[in-house]
Design brief:
Distance between the termini: 64 Å
CATH topology of one domain: Citrate Synthase, domain 1
Number of helices: 18
Structural class: mainly alpha
Helix content: 40-55%
CATH superfamily of one domain: Citrate Synthase, domain 1
Largest sheet: 3 strands, antiparallel
Shape: globular
Radius of gyration: 23 Å
CATH class of one domain: Mainly Alpha
Mean pLDDT: 94
Low-confidence stretches: none
Strand content: 5-15%
Bound molecules: acetyl coenzyme *A
CATH architecture of one domain: Orthogonal Bundle
Length: 428
């Protein structure tokens, strides 16, 4: 039976259809609400609003479930590789051997970026944050591939843009770091896998080849899988909404990188480490910072705690925590910041304030600690997140275009002045 929601307004009743998803999530379809009643809905931060229907990622925040195209994040993290997961997200199915090999080969053969990109990079001052550099360089790809700007581009052209985006992102990300530390850039190596190639471009020097440690490369590949998609979050919604104006994939991804940058989203991984260091430098006084986080007159929040949708636990945080312990042990790294993190987690999880608000460690709480152990500098953490999120953003952009979604354009309730007469500047 088709379910409906009935609403009454000013003595009129209307029925709105209920839409049911494949995991039985339900939504009221309000697409006729305004034409039938003159009303719009108001939902700040879109806490109750579905912006689209999607077959890419399923997330159940109450039960701590995350699946890409139906496959659990636990299975994918254990058995798959980042490029295999990228193929899955973008194409909807896991690839067979030939499909995977072709995909890898196409990506490997597009890792170089135009030499002119180097002069753009040279224009950035050394203090430039790598996230700002990365989104500018991604945007600059439109200049080198102008066909990507054509809203009527062919599917071959779109596929080419997708391959180039995945292939060139590690190069651009590593170069944004090299700019930061004022070292010569390192070119990609096609004999290395995706994650090893990235680590090579980050850490090698022209004078010194960097033998990539397989433990580090494997851990990085797993982290990229865990970050690959997360349905309609701030950055994915940004990518879809920019794409809805028929902007190119490069422009949309560049916007996604900017959306991810903020400390309430992907920037939290950098903020977590900065917070843990601050606590350690303050005599490791964890209780003081838990108290500050609870104090409503203090803007301080526990970074890496809380999530808009996960209200029991973040499944990615569980996998990362385990990976973190394994990597630190395998690499023989002891990190005093980890002790602060563990104490903080223990105290916060028992505290009624955090229990009442369902605040648990999220993916960013532990990822920063692993990145540190892998030798990644703090201001590159959010770049690492962006690198992982590329296939998810691409899949979201592609789906939105294939569903021919209309331009994203919310409405508002105006609270400003009513019409008034213009006052000449002399009389103000
Ligand atoms: N520390 C202290 N209190 C918190 C925290 C926190 N980290 N997070 C939420 N709260 C409190 C709020 O003050 C609020 O309390 P109140 O009901 O008494 O007013 C309540 O919990 C609900 O918080 P909201 O901000 O309304 O929740 P929302 O869903 O809008 O925000 C968010 C989620 C942004 C992730 C938030 O929990 C936060 O700021 N966390 C810290 C930043 C962080 O780790 N971000 C990474 C998220 S994961 C990701 O993007 C990959």
């Amino acid at each position: 039976m088709n379910k409906k929601v009935e609403i009454s307004f000013q003595n009129e009743k209307i029925e709105l259809p209920v839409v049911t998803g494949s995991e039985n999530e339900q939504a009221v379809d309000i697409s006729k609400l305004r034409s039938q009643t003159g009303l719009i809905t108001l939902d700040r931060g879109f806490k109750n609003t579905g912006s689209t229907s999607s077959s890419i990622t399923f997330l159940d925040g109450e039960r701590g479930i995350l699946r890409y195209r139906g496959y659990s994040i636990e299975d994918l993290a254990q058995h798959s590789s980042f490029l295999e997961v990228s193929y899955l997200l973008i194409n909807g199915q896991l690839p067979n051997i030939n499909e995977l090999n072709n995909f890898k080969s196409e990506i490997t053969n597009h890792t170089l970026v135009a030499e002119d990109v180097r002069s753009i990079l040279d224009g950035f001052p050394p203090r430039a944050h790598p996230m700002g550099v990365l989104c500018s360089l991604v945007s600059s790809l439109t200049a080198f591939y102008p066909k990507s700007l054509d809203p009527n581009r062919s599917s071959e052209e779109i596929n080419g843009t997708i391959i180039r985006t995945i292939a060139k992102l590690p190069t651009l990300a590593a170069w944004s770091y090299k700019n930061r530390v004022r070292q010569p850039i390192i070119y990609p190596r096609n004999d290395l896998d995706y994650s090893s190639n990235f680590l090579h471009m980050m850490f090698a020097l022209p004078t010194l080849n960097n033998n990539v440690n397989p433990i580090v490369a494997n851990a990085l590949d797993k982290l990229l899988i865990l970050h690959a998609d997360h349905e309609q979050n701030c950055s994915a919604s940004t990518v879809r909404i920019v794409g809805s104006s028929h902007a190119s994939l490069y422009a949309s991804i560049s916007a996604g990188i900017n959306a991810l940058w903020g400390p309430l989203h992907g920037g939290a991984n950098q903020a977590v480490i900065e917070m843990l260091e601050q606590i350690r430098n303050d005599e490791g006084n964890v209780k003081k910072y838990v108290q500050k986080a609870k104090d409503k007159s203090d803007p301080f929040r526990l970074m890496g705690f809380g999530h808009r949708v996960y209200k029991s636990f973040d499944p990615r945080a569980r996998i990362i925590k385990k990976t973190c312990d394994e990597v630190l042990e395998q690499l023989g790294v002891t990190d005093p910041v980890l002790d602060v993190a563990k104490e903080l987690e223990e105290i916060a999880l028992k505290d009624q304030y955090f229990i009442d608000r369902s605040l648990y460690p999220n993916v960013d709480f532990y990822s920063g600690i692993i990145y540190r152990a892998l030798g990644i500098p703090t201001d590159m953490f959010t770049v690492m997140f962006a690198l992982g999120r590329i296939p998810g953003w691409i899949a979201q952009w592609k789906e939105s275009r294939e569903q021919n979604e209309p331009i994203g354009r919310p409405r508002q309730i105006y609270t400003g002045e009513k019409q008034r007469d213009y006052i000449n500047i002399k009389n103000r």
